[in-house]
Amino acid sequence: MVPRARGAAHGPRHPAAHRDRAGDGPGGELTVAHVSAPAAPAPAARIGARARAAGLAAAVVLLAAIYHRTAAQLWDTWTTNDTYSHGPLVPLVSAAALWARRSALRAASAAPDARGAWLVAAGCALHVLGVRADVFALQGWSLLPVLFGLVLAWFGPAAARAAAFPIAYLGFMLTFPPLVVNQLSFALKELAVALSTRAAEALGAVLQRDGMTLYLATGELRIEHPCSGLRSLLALLATGALLGWITPGGRARRLLLAGLSVPAAILANAVRLTAVVLVAHYGSVKQAAGAFHDASGYAVYLLALGLLLAARRALRPRAEAAA
User: Where is the stretch described as Disordered (predicted)?
Assistant: First the structure.
């Protein structure tokens, strides 16, 4: 006879079964426990997820209905006003930043927060105020609290934190009231002219300044609003904010890098105006105000971007710099 282990007469075990010695029965027999299949998602959870998805879809449709005129006017501003010519790139960068945060968004537990509804209400009120007062800038800026409030209300604080930068970055595509733009342009132009005239005189140029007009031996140069550097400043602020976000290190280092875009843009514009004055002095006003003036506008942004990248390299953490 072939010896047979006790319990073999019971036939083959179930594939999902396992032996458990914690509770040996009488006579040392082994008890068999079966592993139960994973529980199916609760119907209430499925219904809740579907309700959130349906509510979010309804919110997107409502946003499109409310902001379609604002979006059309924004596009018209981007394509006709050089100050905001960087605008079309901002939503693309924001979408890419949101995609980069997809892991954090997936990991965020859905915990709807009622405070988001208050933010949505505040944004809608700001939009209504902008429409009633005919202030287009308010209509555009109202989009930010509405978007952030929707994320907070539907998905909770963790998801809102993950989406905070992509939403806030959309602010770089929005416009400012004309009064603010004019005041800022004048202040930037005043600073740029003061710096450039001193630099040009130090380099041998002979000129006389009267307000925003420079008188040289070859003619006169009138410094207009496009020469204020506001366009390059706004574009560089958007670039600096993105560089700060992707730069490793603490929040202070990132904010410093973003803030350095302001002096970098001002310095680059002053260098440009200095070059224009020198061309007018050693050449002619026609040469300075012609192709050189137009080409130097692009050089301003590239110069400021180079300064910003150099600052980013200097602000790298020591461990990364050593590597």
Answer: 1-32
